[in-house]
Amino acid sequence: MKIIDLTHTYTEDMPVYPGDPKATLEQVAFIDKDTYNDFRITTVMHVGTHMDAPLHMIKDGKRIDEIDPERFIGKGVLIDVRGKIAIDASALEGITIEKGSIVLLFTGFGNKYRTEGYFKGYPELKEDFAEKMVEFGVKIVGMDMLGPDYDKPWLTHKILLGNNITILENLTNLDQLLDAGDFEVIALPAKIQADAAQVRAIAKIP
Asked: Lower Cβ count inside 10 Å, N or C end of the chain?
């Protein structure tokens, strides 16, 4: 069995969505002085590798802590969409997606993480792609970029979250799954009473 870590490390200089408060990570206790180490983070939920719950865009939608943990584990399906700016339903041609799968989109845009370019010109998931995810009954749609769409009215977000499909953003190492064959995704968010949470996401290859 092989484990691929799909998660960006949370550091003191985490990139944040333009306009969001700066995320921080600082050590507040030191073993030489206090007899133990401790750290404090200050962050919005949409920093680093994280998962959006329905409440993020859907009024009265579920918080991340209200989602059954069974929804965070499933058969992985990698879709290579490198070079596409508009990711529509045509990207699914010839791909079998079973009910309960976790779909991961490899855009290649993750190579720009921690650069200013990461927040500009990233690919966009079109509504017909999201509608196909609903039709197939997937659990999660994940991607190696900032998010599935650009701005209000956030149609792709709302199609997915409105049908209880969570969105897993800012993944890494998806290139390591290109020739993996069958794999399982485990993406467990912190159990926080909020619209989203940071995630430790892995792929497990038999």
From this structure: N
